[in-house]
Amino acid sequence: MNSMEKDFLKNSLEETFKVLEYLSQCEPRKAASRRTGLEIQAARFANRALLAGAVGMGIAALLAYWHTSQSPLPDMMKNIALALIMFSTLSTFASLLAPIFASAWTLVRWKTISLRNMLADITHENTFVEVLKNHHENALANAKYWLELRVNRAEARVAYFFGEKAAGLALLGSAYVCAKEFGGFPWLSQTLMAGPVTENLGDSILLMVIALVLGISIGAMLLKHVNARYRFQIELIDNALRK
Prior knowledge:
Radius of gyration: 29 Å
Number of domains: 2
Oligomer: single chain
Mean pLDDT: 76
Order of helices and strands: HHHHHHHH
Strand content: under 5%
Largest sheet: none
Low-confidence stretches: 164-169
Number of helices: 8
């Protein structure tokens, strides 16, 4: 390979790196930005109502403690404590119902909201695509190749152990079932307290296997999250390469 070919390869890689560096900054719209104004207001109301309920219950608990351990409260203070408990209960129910009603209203207008979100997604992603179009097609194609290679390798790594894409959730269920069948949390605590002694060697090995299954399942789900990010970047490149 002569110096001219080396320089060309170096320049091509540098531009590919620039594409990948830019793509690493590209993020899809967050779920919070897809919520309607009513849903946002309902969430704020729910948080405030829950806080108010907690404060009311805390004051009522203090009054109850004073009444039982220090000195009996007068009737007026008892009524105040009961009113605070009622207020706390109603506030808690309100904090639960507000998001439900907001979601129900959103479902009624799902066509309008879906269209609005789709247009916002197009506008958001088109901003990234226009920047990518400034790069050479070869650099975009190379970046796409490396991203697809990372995705395929990650998926093959999961499939090597489990043979299916839904391995993460399946393994989480397996770990839970195994722990439950062998005694649940009491068995876990007893095994951990006993340690890897000779009398407890079988249970210790079984616990290690369950922990390994759980750890691998969490790793598989994290890989799926990373792959989703890479796939979003690949979609941006595909849009930029469109004529």
